[in-house]
């Protein structure tokens, strides 16, 4: 999947010989633009323009009625001094680490097991691991919220059986982060396992058979065959979940209904996107909210650059 | 099928681990169903009762009293269908042009498509909202639908799919017959790549059905809510009944589960072919 970021995948071909009269040929020449026009028009209006306009709005004190005053870089200096912003950065990063690392490791393991040549009911297993993916984040959050409820939740019932006290997960930083990370993991592990499985199936089976004949057990096969073969797709999924991690919103909004926009009274799990929402749509500060959007953009660009470096390094090694 | 016969016997623990993993995948959905069918006195009892109750209709009735949920399901269906079909068409057209036509600027424009895939447009949500309100589309379904057509990854994938499916010889043969580009696309290319386009549309449908942030910002009045936004409204009225939001979540998930029974295999295949970027 590393080829995604490689412009060289586009091949050039000579133009086809025109048919018919001149008018026909002009129309034929323009036809390609007609085919790509719907996308580019929609993208310009709802994608590129808003993206660029974010940088512009961020320079103003701007409210939804359209009143605005130019304030230069004030929004950015405010942002850098705003402990709520750094809190959101920390929360986003913490949730991302807690969810991505165990998720991708687990997905690797599941993919390795699903890749067994003689696995029965493999179609059933593959479909089952994808069930969380078709469950909406909203519904997922409602169920997990119920499961970790302080008084009635099943998780706390287990803790009680173990002789531990009930925990109000949503009230603490680590508890809320773990809960959100668990939801993200639940939803995406199977999806990533299928991506890994697809790459594994491109490998010749004989490699595993030869390794088994040489006496390599499951673990050594996993370490020395599965993991190296999957390196490009692992980079892809890491980038994917990083960009997904920066966008976590619904889980945080629905986790603490009493203080939804901050994900709890102490902002214990307010993510960057939720902070953007709170400032932009909760407090009607379009300018300040856009400055948060710019900060997110910078983080996405850094992610893309790191990805690019990783991909080109792994190519150079080959 | 010779593949299945080769290799060593699968150890029993592999089945055990996979079964546990699948059970964890299903459990939250099953629990949603249990709570959605149980009165709250029973649902909050510990140790938890793991079998469904017979209270489903009562709770579903309460859901309908609290928010116009049937309407919300219809709205979700309209939005998701329109976005699925729209993405399939927009991406097939552009994918065809990038795969099989040559025109000045093709390379540059395709690089732009690839670059846009990496930027999550969600960060530009404030200006997006400004545009929607300029167009007078706040609190309308088209305000959710039309921006949902933009799917750069879909174009990337359709282009690959068309390159792999349609040979240059086929294109040339069609051209020799004197067909215009449009005729080539509509009569020759599209019928052959229709399975791919349908797959793309299915992913678009699932994505749009489950999407939250953008509909949450655009749709204001309860009769325009999608099912996902209705869940949020049910959560706010949690004091009425603990199981209310769970029933809503179950009702909002059920249509996709039914769809999944029929197309799950294709979605699995699609993800393994790289047809969807999460």
UniProtKB/TrEMBL annotation, chain A:
Q: Name one GO biological process term.
A: transmembrane transport
| Membrane topology type | Multi-pass membrane protein
List the Gene3D superfamilies. MetI-like
Keyword Cell division included in the entry's annotation: no
Q: Which PANTHER family match?
A: BLL4140 PROTEIN (PTHR43227), DIACETYLCHITOBIOSE UPTAKE SYSTEM PERMEASE PROTEIN DASB (PTHR43227:SF8)
The protein, known as: ABC transporter permease
Organism from which the protein derives: Virgisporangium aliadipatigenens
Say where the protein is mainly found.
Answer: membrane
Span of domain ABC transmembrane type-1:
89-307
Localization, UniProt: Cell membrane
Q: Which InterPro entries match?
A: MetI-like, MetI-like_sf, UgpAE/MalFG_permease
Automatic annotation (TrEMBL), chain B:
Q: Where in the cell is it found?
A: Cell membrane
| Cell membrane keyword on record | yes
Name the PROSITE patterns on file: ABC_TM1
Q: Which UniProt keywords apply?
A: Cell membrane, Membrane, Transmembrane, Transmembrane helix, Transport
Q: Where are the transmembrane segments?
A: 12-33, 72-97, 109-132, 144-163, 184-209, 242-263
Q: Which InterPro entries match?
A: MetI-like (IPR000515), MetI-like_sf (IPR035906)
> How does the UniProt record describe the way this protein sits in the membrane?
Multi-pass membrane protein
What top-level branch of life does the organism fall under? Bacteria
A single Gene Ontology CC term: plasma membrane
Report the protein name in the record. Answer: Sugar ABC transporter permease
The record lists the lineage as: Bacteria, Bacillati, Actinomycetota, Actinomycetes, Micromonosporales
